[in-house]
Amino acid sequence: MWLSMSKGPKISIITACYNAEKTIEQTIKSVINQTYDNIEYIIVDGASTDGTLDIVRKYEGQIDVIISEEDKGVYDAFNRGAKLASGEYILYLNADDYIISNDVIEGVSNFIKDNNNPILLYGGVLVVNECTGQKFGVNKKVTFVEIQDGMMIPHQATFLSRNVLFEMGLFNEKYSIAADYDLLCKVYKKYNDCVVYYSKIISVFRAGGISSDFKNKEKLNKEKKDILDRHFISHKYEMKQTSNEEFLKKWIEKGLFEGKTIGNLLVIKNIKRVVLWGTGELSLILFKELSTKGIDVLFYVDNDKEKHNLEMNNIPILSPEYLKMNNIEIDCIIMSFEGRHEVSVRKQIETYNLPKELLIYSWRELVMDL
Q: What is the mean pLDDT of residues 122-139?
């Protein structure tokens, strides 16, 4: 792509994309407009079905390699890109992200030369949530101890030796969300003294990628825990359950900024009549939201006998046993309690032999589906 006149290292930038027509052009322009002249640009498309490839083809004269074929996920695409790369260093820049300014790679190249060609160099990212307008920088030096505590460095700001990438066996596709963290642990474990921090913002990261998606948070934690158990016998990382406050925050955020509510979700699922299992504040909030969407709350159920035959919002609170003989008109049971008793309640419900078509959700599951 570029006629190289630079004495700096060749840097391969790899963009994996799928149905990214809304953002891919900004990503491409941020690469091809770099002032540095020793860049190899590779785009690995997962057989997009929208206009992504049409946009990519507009710039094919400035892109070294373009492939478009079905893949098994982002890490499969990353590995395919690495096998096509010939640069001394590789930067993975997703189609949702872009390099923050045109002189970034030139600055990185100079830093690499000044620091005796490190194994890995990383900088910072500017995180942007385009729905909320929130922007903040993530730009700090990360120690080996912090890596073992579960901390990550952003791959959108990481330049890794291609030779070391292959030495480490590329990305372990066993992990669907945290394979980049697995690779990072292996690199730090062997080459900690050859990792350098570059105190500049490298790229802009649009919040909303797979590992930052709310419903994938617990899966990410499980994968990271497995990775640390494999690589480090003694580590301090502990899996943290997503708190009710985080679920509530996401619920509010989805409604305010994206117009997505649990009520809307149930309407899409053609759910018109529900029973709320629980009589706390969450049930009151759900009742209010569902009522605005024309969804009927038939009754509440609660295991607390002292609440039976009382009312909330002029709707009776009944024993769960009532469900055994009165379930024909119910489309869905929603577990709307704050404690994490979903497993025990589901087991309780199983003993009632309810119709198989009767849907059962927890409020947290519905928030994750927004």
A: 87
